[in-house]
Specification:
CATH architecture of the largest domain: Alpha-Beta Barrel
Radius of gyration: 21 Å
CATH class of the largest domain: Alpha Beta
Order of helices and strands: HHHEEEEEEEHEHEHEHEHHEHEHE
Number of helices: 11
Number of strands: 14
Number of domains: 2
Bound molecules: S-adenosyl-L-homocysteine, iron/sulfur cluster
Largest sheet: 10 strands, mixed
Length: 351
C-alpha cells in the first residue's frame, strides 16, 4: 500500500482506523482486508475494492550457503526487481532454549527497475532504465521479506538502499518510503537504521540533507580522479568529485556517525596506492568510513577483480593513516546476491 498513516486516515470515516489497519498490515502481516475483524464489514469491503496490500509476488528465492536469500519480485506490470536479505548471525539461545540474542539482518532494497546512471561496471545498468518504483513497492519489499522469512515486526533490522536503481533519482518516492517504514504505528524502522547509497547526484544529496530525516548516507565514490570516474560513472561529468565532497560536507550528520564511502576496487583501474593516497587527501575533514568492495566480474566485462593482496594493501595503507577502511565481505557470492551485484537475467525485463 502506497499510503502514509496520515493519508490513509484522511480517506477513512474515522481517523483512528488508520492505526488499526497499519497494525494489521505491518504488525500482524495481514495480506487481506477481510482479516481485519475489528473493522466493520462495510469498511472492509470498501477497502478491499480501493486498495491492495499485496501488489508484488515473490517468484523466485535463491538461498546462499551463508543464509543470504535473494528474492525476485514480480510487480503489477510484470516487471521484476531483486531484493536481498542478509542475515548476520543465527539466534543465540541460553540453556533453557530462550533467545539470548536475536540474529541481525539487513535488507538490501531496490528503488528502480533498471537505472539511468549507466555505470560501466554495473549489471543493473545493462538493461537500461525502465521505471521508478512507487513508495509502496519500496516498502512492500521489506514487508514481504519479513513475512516470508518469518521475521517478527518487532525485529527491526537495517535497510540499505543498495539494490537496483539510483535512490536519489527517485527521491520523492524514496522519502515517502523512508517515512512509511519509520512510522511507529507501522514497521517502525528508524531512519537511523536506513542507509541511502548514491552514485553522487550532488544536488539531490543537498535536497535530502535539507529534509533532515536522520538517514545515513553512503557515497559510491569508486575513484579519486575525475577522468577515471567519468569512465566508471558517466554522470560524474555533471556531478564531479568535488561537487560530491562539498555536498557531503553540507549534509546534516549525527556527529557520532561516519559517512560511508564505497570504493569498488577494479584491478589496474583504481587499486594503486597512489589512489589510496589521494583518497586520504580528498576526505580530509570528513568523518568518513571507507568500504572497499571487490569488483564482481560477470560475462562480457573487461574489468577484473583485484587480488586479495592488493585489496589488503590498499586497506592497510588507509587504516595506518587513520582513515577507517574495511573490506566488504562477499556474502551471498554464490548466488550473486552481494549488494549492488544484482542483475537482470536476460528474460527478466520481459512481461
Ligand atoms: N545506485 C546506487 C545504489 C545501488 S548500487 C549506487 O550506485 O550507490 C550499490 C553498490 O553496488 C554500489 O556501490 C555499486 O557501485 C556496487 N556495484 C555495482 N556493480 C558492482 C559489481 N559488478 N561488483 C561489485 N559491486 C558493484
Ligand atoms: Fe545505477 Fe548504482 Fe548501478 Fe551505477 S552502480 S548503474 S548508479 S545501480
Amino acid at each position: 500500500m502506497n499510503l502514509s498513516l496520515k493519508e490513509l486516515g484522511e480517506s477513512l470515516p474515522k481517523k483512528f482506523q488508520a492505526k488499526q489497519i497499519y497494525d494489521w498490515i505491518y504488525h500482524k502481516y495481514a495480506t487481506d482486508f477481510s482479516e481485519m475483524l475489528n473493522l466493520s464489514k462495510n469498511l472492509r469491503e470498501e477497502l478491499q475494492s480501493k486498495y491492495a496490500i499485496e501488489t508484488m509476488e515473490i517468484i523466485n528465492r535463491e538461498i546462499s550457503s551463508d543464509g543470504t536469500i535473494k528474492y525476485l519480485f514480480r510487480l503489477v506490470d510484470g516487471r521484476t526487481v531483486e531484493t536481498v536479505l542478509l542475515r548476520m548471525r543465527d539466534d543465540k539461545f541460553d540453556e533453557n532454549g530462550d533467545v539470548l540474542q536475536q540474529a541481525k539482518y539487513t535488507i538490501c532494497v531496490s528503488t528502480q527497475v533498471g537505472c539511468k546512471v549507466g555505470c560501466s561496471f554495473c549489471l543493473t545498468a545493462k538493461g537500461g532504465f525502465v521505471r521508478d518504483l512507487t513508495a509502496g513497492e519500496i516498502v512492500e519489499q521489506i514487508l514481504a521479506i519479513k513475512r516470508d522469512a518469518e521475521i517478527g515486526y518487532e525485529r527491526k533490522g537495517n535497510i540499505v538502499y543498495m539494490g537496483m536503481g539510483e535512490p536519489l533519482d527517485n527521491l520523492d518516492n524514496l522519502v515517502k518510503a523512508i517515512k512509511i517504514l519509520s512510522d511507529e504505528n507501522g514497521l517502525s524502522i528508524s531512519p537511523r537504521r536506513q542507509t541511502v547509497s548514491t552514485s553522487g547526484l550532488s544536488t539531490k544529496i543537498d535536497k535530502l540533507g535539507l529534509m533532515d530525516l536522520g538517514v545515513h548516507l553512503a557515497i559510491s565514490l569508486h575513484s579519486v580522479d575525475d577522468e577515471v570516474r567519468n569512465e566508471l560513472i558517466p554522470m560524474n561529468k555533471a556531478f564531479n568529485i568535488q561537487s560530491i565532497i562539498e555536498a557531503v560536507k553540507r549534509f546534516p550528520y549525527d556527529n557520532r556517525k561516519r559517512v560511508m564511502f564505497e570504493y569498488l576496487v577494479i584491478k589496474d583501474i583504481n587499486d594503486s596506492l597512489q589512489s589510496a593516497k589521494k583518497l586520504i587527501k580528498l576526505l580530509e575533514g570528513i568523518k568518513a568510513k571507507i568500504n572497499l568492495i571487490y569488483f564482481n566480474p560477470y560475462p562480457g566485462t573487461t574489468y577484473e577483480r583485484p587480488s586479495e593482496k592488493s585489496m589488503e594493501e590498499f586497506a592497510d595503507y588507509l587504516n595506518r593513516r587513520g582513515l577507517l577502511a574495511t573490506i566488504r565481505s562477499s556474502r551471498g557470492i554464490d548466488i550473486s546476491a552481494a549488494c549492488g551485484q544484482l542483475r537482470e537475467k536476460e528474460t527478466l525485463y520481459m512481461q
